[in-house]
Automatic annotation (TrEMBL):
NAD(P)-binding domain mapped to chain residues: 5-334
Protein name as annotated: dTDP-glucose 4,6-dehydratase
GO MF terms held by the record: dTDP-glucose 4,6-dehydratase activity
Family statement: Belongs to the NAD(P)-dependent epimerase/dehydratase family. dTDP-glucose dehydratase subfamily.
Keyword Chaperone included in the entry's annotation: no
Keywords: Lyase, NAD
InterPro entries assigned to the protein according to its UniProt record, in alphabetical order: dTDP_Gluc_deHydtase, NAD(P)-bd_dom, NAD(P)-bd_dom_sf, Sc_DH/Rdtase_CS
Cofactors, names only: NAD(+)
PROSITE patterns given in the database record: ADH_SHORT
Length: 353
């Protein structure tokens, strides 16, 4: 039986991981540490048994040290991060504090409890990072691999790159048993409505503009969050200590294609379920029109990386990882979740603005 501390476990990917882990390993003890900032939501953990939520900051090294020691934590899965690129452009300080200083705080606490005062019990510090640390790809460039040089282009990706380097350093310098995963763009349940898929889905339901940066041809590799959680599980159980694994969805799509899929999906849902027109009367689909009429092209974001793509050969060959969903299936499931969970997302819309 493992004792897990999951940082940021009330956020989007973290909460999905908590749900996934409770089903996959019901005998383990799970503690969530989350500051419940704007994107953290305790309701994301509703319905879960044997999950303890501690409201606190990962920068509070004394608190983390106490939790690791008193609860005999042997595994940290570190999701807690500021992650929205637009917010990092307007307010980079929070990203450096949480992503760099916060990660270092966790590493210091782990080193003190597991190494300096260690009992010899096996431990693991798993750090969840992003493909954005690798920079931008040209259309014909090979996909990012674990050996791709870092070239972050936004304050967000720079802060994540810094945290990646700290995790690597604590393994090589002090012997902390770490692993790192760099993932592509996640989507799925519980995603705060500031990111493309939930934002555009909810905007289409409420008759709001769909603001597309530049020409809409920025390319991302889309990864359903449950596939990401399976990848992390494989790394925790079978990954080599000190290694980095890239986790992708194998779905490399331009943003405009994703927006078109959202519009088609919403229109099809209204055609299939007449009650949606009553629930969302401002949606173009409620009047039999196309959601695509809401598309609006806006000035491109500063430093907007043109293309990301993940080469997941390493995690496939070493750990047997294969994504279970293509984008069409994954988005259909995601849209169904958002249509069923209006009580979850409705209070968040103003916070996302």
């Amino acid at each position: 039986m493992a004792n897990l501390l999951i940082t940021g476990g009330a956020g989007f990917i973290g909460a999905n991981f908590v749900h996934y882990w409770r089903k996959a390993s019901p005998g383990d003890r799970v503690m969530v540490l989350d500051a419940l900032t704007y994107a953290g939501n305790a309701a994301n953990l509703d319905g879960l048994e044997a999950v303890e939520l501690v409201v606190g900051d990962i920068c509070d090294t004394a608190l983390v040290t106490k939790l690791l020691s008193e609860r005999q934590i042997d595994t940290i899965v570190h999701f807690a991060a500021e992650s929205h690129v637009d917010r990092s452009i307007t307010g980079p300080d929070a990203f450096v504090t949480t992503n760099v200083v916060g990660t270092h705080s966790l590493l210091k606490a782990a080193k003190e409890v597991w190494l300096d005062k260690g009992t010899g019990r096996p431990h693991r510090f798993h750090h969840v990072s992003t493909d954005e640390v690798y920079g931008s790809l040209a259309p014909d460039d090979p996909a990012f691999s674990e050996t791709t040089s870092y070239a972050p282009n936004s304050p967000y990706s720079a802060s994540k790159a810094g945290s990646d380097h700290l995790v690597r350093a604590y393994h090589h310098t002090f012997g902390l048993e770490t692993t790192t995963s760099n993932c592509s763009n996640n989507y799925g349940p519980f995603q705060f409505p500031e990111k493309l898929i939930p934002l555009f889905t909810l905007n289409a339901l409420n008759g709001r503009h769909l603001p597309i940066y530049g020409d809409g041809m920025n390319v991302r590799d889309w990864l359903h969050v449950e596939d990401h959680c399976r990848g992390i599980e494989l790394i925790l159980k079978n990954g080599r200590v000190g290694e980095t694994y890239n986790v992708g969805g194998g779905q490399e799509l331009p943003n405009i294609r994703v927006v078109e899929e959202i519009c088609r999906g919403v229109d099809a849902a209204f055609a299939h379920d007449p009650d949606l027109a009553r629930r969302f009367p401002n949606a173009p689909a409620a009047q039999g029109r196309s959601s695509s009429e809401l598309k609006t092209y806006v000035e491109d974001r500063k430093g907007h990386d043109r293309r990301y793509a993940i080469d997941e050969t390493k995690i496939r060959s070493e750990l047997g990882y294969v994504p279970a969903r293509d984008f069409t299936q994954g988005f259909a499931e995601t849209l169904a979740w958002y249509l069923a969970e209006e009580n979850w997302w409705a209070p968040l819309l103003n916070r996302a603005a």
